[in-house]
């Protein structure tokens, strides 16, 4: 499979929370307490950062908040960088590596700031970088780039926390209900949904040779705009690029990984315009809950991972905005809804089971391996009991039960399929699990369809 990947890649600096040190740093800061009650949703001060981290730890949820102040980013770098683990970051960067390691033939990514350091985090198996009309492997590109490349290294701080971690703040004790992560991001190029000129030219010229495209990064756009264009213009430029690929290859399968938006306004606009051109949009329950709330639906059952509520919200959003397919991945299960009557539900189930296995193996091992190694690891990881129960409950609410290998049927005129995930009890990292499962499902579906 030959696959285009856009738009966001960066370097993740992963910090495993030291709860005692965090408790000491928090002290009795009253600004943080106020912001816990009225979250800012972005970071312009140290107290904003601490509030976002504590909110995620308290609720066991994941979020990405954008940093609007360079001094706060510099403080984060000085405070946490030396003790962190660096690796590939950005939805697209992670998904490109997954595709490459799992056996794609050619993966061509858009990289906003391509440097020797950034290239070193890309897979060396099947990733090729366009430069001056040619493709270079991740090993080669560092020697091809001109000396004195002044583009900045794009580094995101990812704060991992685990179930039962304890933080003490302002006389209260916060106990983490489940593992997750909080991301603090300062990234002026990806904030603009930057399209590299070499990728733009190569992708249009060679779109006819591609089997699919997997796209993300829209969630990084900001309402006040960054640079010359605002978010609407940036989204429209990206949409024009996707349409240009479709004009060259009409059956190019495009999957969008939605991401956690800091602005409901941008999230709604992005979903509405992308739904008209792409083949499928993937997201987690947090992201679905945000869209559902904006469109008058109750987000609480979605956040509680109620499979029926998730399916009905996904179907309603698809119907209202003209999207045919949606994939929702949660910690406990993955669900697909589709308006395509010709879709083979067993094929979708196979692809979702494959993705769930790859993500679980990655969580337990902390690294991407070849396909068979991941599947061997996953075979020892139990399926989610909650996910299995929700699968059975969903079947009982469907209009038609098709008696599939797991659970599938018809509901509200849409084809629905659900599979439980596999739960790694002591994950090495939760970073990139959603991207891993989506990319693996995408690749397996391409293989099964061609």
Automatic annotation (TrEMBL):
Signal peptide: none
A GO biological process held by the record: glycolytic process
Residue ranges that the Swiss-Prot or TrEMBL entry lists as coiled coil: none
Pfam family for this entry, one: ADP_PFK_GK
A GO MF term: phosphotransferase activity, alcohol group as acceptor
Superkingdom in the source lineage: Archaea
Gene3D superfamilies: 3.30.1110.20, 3.40.1190.20
Keyword Hydrolase among record annotations: no
Alphabetic keyword roster: Cytoplasm, Glycolysis, Kinase, Magnesium, Metal-binding, Transferase
Name this protein carries in UniProt: ADP-dependent glucokinase/phosphofructokinase
Originating species: Methanolobus mangrovi
């Amino acid at each position: 499979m030959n696959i285009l990947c856009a738009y966001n890649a960066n370097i993740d600096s992963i910090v495993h929370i030291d709860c005692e040190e965090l408790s000491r740093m928090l002290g009795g800061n009253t600004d943080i307490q106020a912001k816990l009650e009225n979250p800012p949703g972005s970071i312009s001060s140290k107290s904003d950062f601490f509030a976002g981290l504590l909110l995620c730890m308290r609720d066991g949820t994941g979020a990405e908040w954008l940093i609007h102040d360079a001094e706060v980013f510099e403080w984060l770098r000085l405070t946490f960088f030396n003790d962190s683990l660096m690796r590939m970051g950005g939805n697209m960067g992670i998904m490109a590596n997954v595709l490459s390691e799992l056996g794609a033939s050619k993966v061509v990514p858009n990289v906003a700031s391509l440097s020797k350091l950034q290239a070193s985090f890309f897979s060396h198996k099947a990733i090729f970088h366009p430069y001056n009309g040619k493709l270079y492997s991740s090993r080669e590109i560092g020697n091809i780039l001109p000396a004195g490349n002044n583009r900045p290294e794009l580094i995101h701080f990812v704060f991992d926390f685990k179930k039962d971690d304890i933080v003490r703040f302002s006389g209260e004790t916060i106990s983490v209900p489940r593992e997750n992560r909080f991301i603090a991001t300062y990234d002026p190029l990806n904030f603009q949904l930057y399209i590299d000129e070499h990728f733009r030219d190569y992708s249009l010229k060679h779109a006819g040779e591609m089997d699919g495209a997997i796209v993300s990064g829209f969630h990084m756009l900001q309402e006040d705009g960054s640079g010359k264009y605002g978010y609407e213009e940036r989204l429209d430029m990206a949409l024009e690029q996707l349409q240009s690929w479709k004009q060259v290859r009409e059956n190019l399968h495009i999957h969008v990984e939605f991401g956690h938006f800091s602005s409901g306004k941008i999230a709604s606009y992005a979903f509405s315009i992308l739904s008209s051109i792409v083949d499928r949009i993937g997201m987690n329950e947090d992201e679905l809950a945000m869209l559902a709330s904006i469109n008058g639906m109750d987000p609480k059952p979605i956040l509680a991972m109620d499979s029926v509520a998730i399916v009905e919200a996904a179907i309603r959003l698809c119907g209202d905005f003209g999207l045919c397919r949606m994939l929702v991945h949660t910690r406990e299960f993955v669900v697909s809804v589709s308006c395509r009557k010709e879709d083979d539900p067993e094929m979708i189930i196979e692809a979702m089971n494959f993705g769930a296995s790859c993500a679980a193996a990655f969580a337990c091992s902390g690294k991407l391996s070849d396909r068979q190694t991941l599947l061997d690891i996953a075979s020892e990881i139990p399926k989610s009991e909650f996910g299995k129960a929700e699968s059975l409950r969903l079947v009982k609410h469907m209009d038609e039960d098709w008696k599939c290998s797991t659970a599938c049927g018809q509901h509200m005129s849409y084809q629905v399929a659900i599979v439980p995930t596999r739960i790694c009890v002591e994950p090495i990292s939760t970073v990139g699990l959603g991207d891993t499962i989506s990319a693996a499902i995408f690749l397996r579906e391409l293989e099964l369809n061609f």
